[in-house]
Prior knowledge:
Blueprint: E1 2-5, H1 7-22, H2 29-33, E2 37-38, H3 39-50, E3 52-53, H4 56-67, E4 76-77, H5 79-86, H6 88-99, H7 104-109, H8 113-117, H9 124-137, H10 151-160, H11 170-180, H12 207-215, H13 232-236, E5 270-271, H14 288-305, H15 325-355, H16 366-384, H17 414-424, H18 430-452, H19 456-459, H20 462-471, H21 474-498, H22 504-520, H23 539-550, E6 554-557, H24 560-569, H25 571-576, H26 582-620, E7 632-635, E8 640-641, E9 654-662, E10 670-673, H27 680-683, H28 686-692, H29 695-705, H30 710-726, H31 732-746, H32 750-759, H33 771-781, H34 797-811, E11 824-827, E12 832-835, E13 844-854, E14 857-865, E15 876-877, H35 883-904, H36 910-948, H37 972-999, H38 1004-1035, E16 1036-1037, E17 1040-1041, H39 1044-1080, H40 1100-1115, H41 1117-1132, H42 1139-1152, H43 1167-1207
Parallel strand pairs: 7-12
Antiparallel strand pairs: 1-6, 2-4, 3-5, 7-9, 8-9, 9-14, 10-11, 12-13, 13-14, 13-15, 16-17
Helix pairs in contact: 3-4, 5-42, 6-12, 9-10, 11-12, 11-42, 12-42, 14-15, 14-18, 14-26, 15-16, 16-18, 21-41, 24-36, 26-36, 26-37, 29-34, 30-31, 30-34, 31-33, 36-37, 37-39, 38-39, 40-41
Amino acid sequence: KFLRPKGAVKDTKELEFLVALLQTTHNEAESFMDGSVDAKDVRAFLLSRYGIQLTETQVREVIFRGLAGGEGEDEEMDILEIVAILMIPMLVKVSDAILGSDSPDARLSSMDEDKKRLLPPSDIIEDVLQDILHDTTDGAYDVEHPPPLTPALLRQIFLEYDELELVRDDDLIQQMIDMASESSSSSMDDDDTLKDGESKSSPVLNVKAFAKALTMDTNLYNPENETRYSEVYNDVFPEGFEEGVKIGEETAGKSKTMNRAPSVVGETFQKITTFSHMDYTADNFVHVIHVVLVWLVVVFSYFFYMSPVSGVPKAEFLEDEADTFGTRVGFSVFGWTVTMLKLVIVGSTVSFLLALGNGLFQKSILEPIVGLASVVVLVFLPYYMPETNFVFNTNFSNATNVTDSSHNTTNATDDSAHEYFLYDFKELFDIMMIFGVLLVIVQLKNLVTIVFGTSDKLKKNPAFMMLENFLGSNVKRAYGSKQAAVYKINEMARNAYDLHKLDEKAAERKELKREVSIEATGGQNEGEGEKTGLGDKSSRAIALQKYNDLTDDSDEVGGVIWAWKEYISGNLGVTEGVWLPSRLIAANVILFFTIFVVLYICTMIFTGFIWGIEEFFDAAQLKEVIYNTDCFSEFDYNDCYFPFEEAAFYTGVAVCRDVSLSGPGCDDLFEEADPESTFGSAIGNMCDSFNAAFAPFEKQVGDLLGGASCPYVLDAAKKSVVDVLGAYNYSAEDSELFYNVCYRYTYMEDEDISKFNEWFDDDTYYPDITEETLADCGIVASIVSPETFVDSYQGREEAAFAGFQICMDLYKSLSPRPFCEEPFYFPTESIITYEKNRTDTEFCYSYLSLCVADQYNPSRGTCVIGEADGRYYRFGGAYENYPSINKTMNHYQIFVEPTEQSFLSLFPAQWMLTLTAAIGITSGLIAALATALVYVPSSIHTILKFRSGVIPSLKDPKFISYRKNLHNQTYMIGSMFWGLIISTGMVTFLTAGITFLLVWPITRPIVVEIAAQVLGIAITVAVKVVLCFLAMRTAYSGFYRTKPMFANVFNVALECWALALSLAFVAGRLAKFLVITSFYVGRIDRPVLADGLFVQVDKLPLVFRQNLLSTESHRHPYIEMLGQMYLMKLRHREHFSSRAGSIWRLLFVSALMPWLKKKRIQDDINIENLRSFVEKENQGSSKQIQDASEEVTLQAHKENADGAMENL
């Protein structure tokens, strides 16, 4: 809520605001604050509002001539002249009531409720005339005894109301007398003849004459249009204003607006194409909901289809360049340029095509048809026909879940990240179909309207009105704005005239002064007491004094509930004429849809987070391993290597050679794995760890052969094999392969042979091993014997052969490859493995992990054991009999298990996470709703504050800044959209974080301690407040000390205490800033940062006001009324509003609202010359005045006698 001025003061502030809106090029403080409106301003308004293109000369000669009280040379209008123009509708209706033949009761009974509500004060013309006569003639005349209407009287009125430059304008004075004359004809031409028996020699300024003078030149205004369901433009040009039309060529009977006088031919004025269906400044639309739906499609198409979550787009073809800062800047510039081009081209095209058919000035049947086709192509097809290209990506039908463990998103591209986003939130895409269906409905309604039209009778039909209300008809809003203009002008007149009347106390003071004046004169000349000035004040003086007194009064208005109630009920539209910009309405509706989207996303995030925590917690706990029951394994403890055992550190796993598999399902349980998987972190480098498992046996070979290694021994054997088999035409590669296979087959156990034949029964690459195969392979295997090493190890042939057998047993090949070059395999299910020397009662077991298969015997291989389900140290059974395994498990129990339990104790319970999510989402919902629901009330309040002067306009040079950089309004929809998302997200996660800290056992003691400190400070401050209250009452009276000594000591003590206490105040201030900023970051209607800071960085509140002011400058009720008068003048030229009539209305406003005289802009007048002229004219006209007065008196006596005879 806010306080605003009351009555006439509020009306004056709104008039100042009106002028501030109308001005365009008044950028200097002096020319801005004088309240002038020139031809440039009117030209700009007509072009921007209606697309009518005029020159400044045309504005002056066509519009300013007569309408502004000038003869065409006027360069500007002031506030007083603008009010005189605004008063035309009210004066026409009051004048019709005065001059009409129907009784007031009869006229009232024929009106509907809308017309009754718009009735002006019926006595306003009579009362203002009374004031003019009283102030001009010092009470010598009144409406009951009107004075003769002579040039001298008009000059006296001009002098009384400071229209000094008009005093010597004899032609104007005669025209004004002719207009007011009871006997003048309906024409305004000077050479028109009078009716028989009428004379111009004896007009009087009575109520009827004054009413005729005020409205005779404006009878073309049709009050019926005030309650017509139409735009102002259509009221004046019901047949339309086509490009190149000559104003005034239409005949008089074409419309209700022309049924009082014919038009004349004028020069050609152009109406340019403005694309009114995209006019978000003047809101020249048919339906607001059409605008809303277009922007909903544009915003959410960008959000869904153009991947805003994937970050700044990059120039992929530049990524091979050097990774320098300059390169990164280049990436950024290129990426944002691409984004700009995509959004500008695609967004503009989409909004242009979808909005077709919604233009107020565009009535082609082709437009809604193209609009319907655009809905199909741009809304429905992307939903049903997935497409991926450089501009957008709608291919979400095959997108994968971001939580799918089989997909690694760490190095995901923009497109893949977009697909993950689409998968998780693809349910939201159904709202695009809702938007499309509603757009189809709107376009069909537009199409039907263009084809069949809408009659006035249909427009009043309840079903039609209900549809219009649903579609947010702009014509309906314009209908309310017209009524608001009339209503506000009537109220302005009432408020002004209320100041002319004495209230009860003022009347008592007046009577007292009159009595004092009589007593002071000894009771003589009692009737002249009022003329002394002591007993009476002029109506103008009373009004000015009461206006001055009223400037300190105010009333309270506003409030969120009040604003929504008034807006929904439509009262604001028909009383205040508040026109909310369509851009703001569209943005606000987008916010409500965004709330749903954001909360859905937050819910998904919290759900995924809780699910992830639970999965991690579940995985972190030791559970019984579920292993495959169809596949078993054996390992030999003596063939195992425990990484880092030499450093007394145990990783929980071992690398074992010659691990065997058995069971019918083993061959299908392995899939190839990444050798750089997470298991490398447990055993060090994978290759080194596997190679280390063979190191002890390599050492045996070195001990046998004096340091020789397996590659050296195997190379000597390979030469012998190649030589022998080469004689049978085998190549070196085939010879080696043949020998490797045969050697493996020869030393296979019977169980291995059976498994091999079973696994590869249908595999032609691995034929079954038969007795014949073994016999042949035995011959090949015998190629290498001790004699093979005679040349290499003379005298140590047997030792070399033994070393050869060890090496072949290790590597199964004459040319062993590093394990990094071998494929790694990972079991898809846990496989249990037993130590081969087990018994039925004592056994040690573990589980297989990564394996490298024996390429010649796939049932055996080198494997990592001790890991299952992502957990290490998975050994069980009687492992105490195996020293290294026992040490591994002791290491786990002493060092690892306590750490794990301590870590698991940090995990919050599920109820903590659920409560955190619930409170976070609820608070986010409240914050989002508060943000979305406050924009309409805030806009209404801001408009009303501007209108009532609470926010300065004409008297504040800073107002000029609102007219600069109006293109910044384009930030509003995006800023409101992203502001809500960020604000809601911040509030959600901030409150969720605070809640989590309160319920999590780890942080609860810290929070409790902080809360205790805060509470302690609060209690201390409360005690201080009580003490200060008592001390202030005792030692202070206002700014003064009643006990100076006590006050001094008390203040010094407090100041010392504040050295510590202020830290809490500053910390609290910081906390409040963070909380308030997180909430208000989404509110672009309110400044978060104060004015006057070193750098004004928050521009969005200025943008918000600019948008409101931009629409107000086109749709304010007074501006709508002014626009109608401009259009009437354009259409009817000199047949609407003459200079004489404008001056009569100017005098009316001067008498009614004398406080506006200081806003009058006039040329300097030589007072001495004017005085000489007035004295001369008065001397010449005194006899004329006397004769006219006698004639008026005789005429009055005759009328009284005739009345008496008629009564008799």
